[in-house]
Specification:
Layout: E1 21-25, E2 38-43, E3 49-50, E4 59-65, E5 70-78, H1 89-96, E6 100-105, H2 110-118, E7 122-125, E8 130-131, H3 132-145, H4 149-159, H5 164-171
Parallel strand pairs: 2-6, 6-7
Antiparallel strand pairs: 1-5, 2-4, 3-8, 4-5
């Protein structure tokens, strides 16, 4: 998973993002299958390491993944002037993460956490800068084996709780 370099002269994808920055959806070959279980964002200024506070992040690297594969599918970058003194930046940042199950960052303020959770995005705070590839490996293992609560929840939300009726039948119908 090699991060792609982005040409700074590239125009933003949509007029709504021109003021805040760029939101680039990466197009892959028709022969390349993109994992589809869920998407995870990482607050990063280099697309290799989680090294940013959510509200002050220079950008996000967004990956699609399942238990076997992970692929960079989107890059969101913010203009420096959109980050300073802009009290209304959180809704725009959260909107850029639509469809993501979680966002990894070094910190997030209480207001950001509340808004992320309301949007269905689980904020994950890390204590130290962490390589994205290592996190993707841990998430993939959790998809296969369980053990990370937000991953288990995202799988249930995406695919439903397929074993629910089996568990109910095992419990029996007696009170």
């Amino acid at each position: 998973m090699t991060p792609l370099s982005i040409d700074p002269s590239t125009e933003p994808a949509a007029p709504a993002t021109r003021r805040a920055g760029r939101h680039l959806a990466l197009a892959w070959s028709a022969t390349s299958e993109v994992p589809s279980m869920f998407r995870v964002a990482f607050a990063s200024n280099d697309r290799k390491t989680v090294n940013q506070h959510f509200g002050a992040a220079a950008g996000f690297a967004i990956y699609a993944l399942d238990g076997e594969h992970a692929q960079l599918v989107e890059v969101v970058e913010f203009l420096p002037e959109s980050m300073h003194g802009n009290e209304n930046k959180l809704p725009a940042r959260i909107a850029m993460l639509a469809g993501c199950a979680a966002v990894y960052c070094l910190a997030a303020g209480a207001s950001a956490v509340k808004q992320l959770l309301a949007a269905g995005v689980q904020p994950i705070r890390l204590d130290d800068e962490t390589e994205i590839d290592g996190l993707l490996q841990k998430i993939s293992l959790a998809v296969c084996n369980g053990g990370i609560s937000w991953v288990d929840k995202a799988i249930r939300r995406t695919h439903g709780d397929r074993d629910r009726f089996d568990r109910m039948a095992e419990e029996g119908w007696d009170g």
